[in-house]
Amino acid sequence: MTRARSGKTVLRGRKRLRKLTKGFRAGRHNLQRQSAMALVRSRAYAYRDRKVKKRDFRRLWIVRVSAACRMRGIRYSELIYGLQKALIILDRKSLSEIAIHDPETFTQIVEIVKTHLAAAK
Question: How far from chain centre, in Å, is Cα 114?
């Protein structure tokens, strides 16, 4: 009986692993065990950091909107509360884009918020 060998399958797997770890440094891209472990860790970091990226962008938008608010004499928390009172539905991303690229419109939004805040008091 002939011996069954898994040469093609093993080589195909190694080739796939090498392709996935392309660009890794030193033995992490060409040594079998190291590249397998490095690939596991890299995928774990990628999964984790996709969530962190969302948090980071939200923080950036809040900082931008807060800075734009303070230039117009209102606090960020007051702006968000006033937007809710005025029934204006704008997310933080769009608010920051408006604050950067269209300051006049952002000033008008702040004025609307100020009138609703005054009416709420």
Answer: 31
